[in-house]
Amino acid sequence: MEELESSAQVNSSTHRLALSQQSGRSSIDQLLRTTHQHHIYLSGMADKKASFLIAAASVMLTLILGKYSDENTIPAPLLILAGFTLLATCFAVLCIVPHLKSKQVDREKINLLFFGEFGNLSLEDYKVKMASLIQSDEDIYQAIIEEIYFLGELLKKTKYRYLTWAYQIFLAGILLSAFIFAGQVLSVVNPT
């Protein structure tokens, strides 16, 4: 119990976790590695789901446009479905578009683990900053923790938000066009 309490200590003067001084560092290393891998897996999964939606939407739009070229008119349900499908496709594309900027603005403390930030440094500047980072286990842990945080923030605020919107819009388009189609069929069958 005492070991658990000491592992959660926070240095109040610098707001840094005292991870490098813990006796169970291998479990901390495993936790950080697993969390990072899980975030990467979730990012890949979001990309696959978005790609699937883009492919399905492309097929649907091709079929709808094929229907238009055959008849020179598109029925209202298909037009609605096409509009919602196109909008869903846009959100799916936003999900998989690379995000190269992080919210850190302090150029002295850039994220050396994210290419979108260190990619603007010269190789020599990168080597100097990386050499400084790896001098301290504590700094290494902090860099990994920040990387995990920013990956999670990216997943929540962009990838999965856009993916959720894309699928909700796609589903709404299918349902709305189905209801309109059903209403048109019923009005033809029962022309009251």
How would you describe what is shown here?
The chain has 192 residues and is an all-alpha fold. It has one domain. 74% of the residues lie in helices and 2% in strands. It contains six helices and two strands, in the order αββααααα. It has helices spanning 2-7, 25-71, 76-96, 115-118, 123-133, 137-189; strands spanning 10-11, 16-17. Strands 1-2 form a two-stranded antiparallel sheet. β1 (10-11) and β2 form a beta hairpin. α2 packs antiparallel against α3, α2 (25-71) runs parallel beside α6 (137-189) and α3 runs antiparallel to α6 (137-189). The longest helix has 53 residues, at 137-189. It is elongated, with a radius of gyration of 25 Å. The N and C termini lie far apart (76 Å). The relative contact order is 0.14.
Strand content: under 5%
**N/C terminus separation:** 76 Å
Instruction: Write down the secondary-structure element order.
Output: HEEHHHHH
Largest sheet: 2 strands, antiparallel
Shape: elongated
Q: Structural class, from helix and strand content?
A: mainly alpha
As a whole number of angstroms, the C-alpha radius of gyration is 25 Å
> Which strand order does the major sheet show?
1-2
The tally of structural domains comes to 1
Total beta strands: 2
| Residue runs with pLDDT of under 50 for 5 or more positions | 1-14
Please estimate the helix content: over 70%
Output the number of helix runs.
6
Mean of all residue-level pLDDT scores: 83
